Amino acid sequence: VELGGVSGSVEGRCGALSARGQTQCRGGRWEQGFAELEQGIALALEQQLLGAAAKLEMQLGSHLLPRGAVDRAEQAYVCGLAHAQAAQDTRLEGRAWTGLARVDVYADRQVAAFEHFEQALRCTRSSLDRVGECRTLGLMGRLEARRGQLAQAELHFRDALDCYRDQVLPGRFAWILASRTEISLRWGRVEHAERCAESALVITKLRGTPAELAVAEFNLGMLLLETGVIDGAEAHIRSARRVVQQMGLRRFLGDVT
Predict the structure, then answer these.
(1) How far apart are CA 203 and CA 214, in angstroms?
(2) Spatial separation of the C-alpha atoms in residues 34 and 224, rounded to whole Å
């Protein structure tokens, strides 16, 4: 059976390959998922559908990174950026810059990461891409926290959450709430840290993916460990590790998109 229907459009077939590929990856069937996405990329390029090719390249990159395939992910984002620019699609360009910045974070290239994040913010804001802006600001906050710049990190996290001040926060961004937990704990704001961690877990249970739920579970577990609730901490950490092992993830904290 031909994807998208016998008489379906090429765009529909690319969309079907994208959906199938991402579903495979989220279910831990990585190689099958990568193959579906790569097939979609080839089809899109064959038909000069540069916007579709850019989306598929970035989807591929986002799933390669947690598997530790940094070089392959970087190539996917570089190609995605080139396709987005050729298509003159500022929204997709912004998301590609964010992807490249994530690669920089994995490769410990902090200067390059901040430069790429700034490029991403310029594009996401000019294209009114709220999802892209929220993700970029959240990742900038994670990087600042890693550098020990907690005040700047907290500002980025607040700006990220403010993107959804008039709407319910999507499950995909619960990790931003989870990230604030560590900062509040370091500042001695234990109650605020607990609220952030518990809210992140509730949101991911309602609207998150298994990988996002693992982040929230692990985050709450580490908070409970820090505050001396050992039994509760172990239960949440075990739950997170079980999901990570089932999905075959190698890295996931702060990297969920």
Answers:
(1) 12
(2) 37
3-state secondary structure of 256: coil
Average pLDDT over the chain reads: 89
CA distances (Å), origin 37, targets 13, 49, 79, 218: 11, 14, 14, 30
In the block, tokens 């990329």 appear at 41
- Rounded to the nearest 10 degrees, how much is the dihedral formed by the CA atoms of 145, 156, 134, 107? -30
Write the pLDDT tens digit of every residue in 80-135: 999 999 999 999 999 999 999 999 999 999 999 999 999 999 999 999 999 999 99
pLDDT in the model for residue 249: 65
Query: Poorest-confidence range of 48-52, 65-69, 205-209?
Result: 205-209
Residues 232, 217: Cα–Cα separation, whole Å: 11
Does an H or E element contain 148, and which? none
Class of residue 85 by CB neighbours under 10 A (exposed 0-12, middle 13-18, buried 19+) = middle
- What was the pLDDT predicted at 207? 84
Q: What is the reported pTM? A: 0.83
| pLDDT class of 250 with cuts at 50, 70, 90 | low
> Are the C-beta atoms of 129 and 95 separated by less than 8 Å?
yes
Q: Which residues contact 158 (CB under 8 A, 6 or more apart)?
A: none
The dihedral over CA atoms of 57, 167, 113, 82, expressed in degrees to the nearest 10, equals 30
Contact status, residue 23 vs residue 4, Cβ threshold 8 Å: no
The yes-or-no verdict on residue 191 having pLDDT over 50 is yes
Q: Which helix (H) or strand (E) element contains residue 227?
A: none
**What are the Cα distances from residue 210, in Å, to 70, 123, 131, 248?**
22, 30, 20, 12
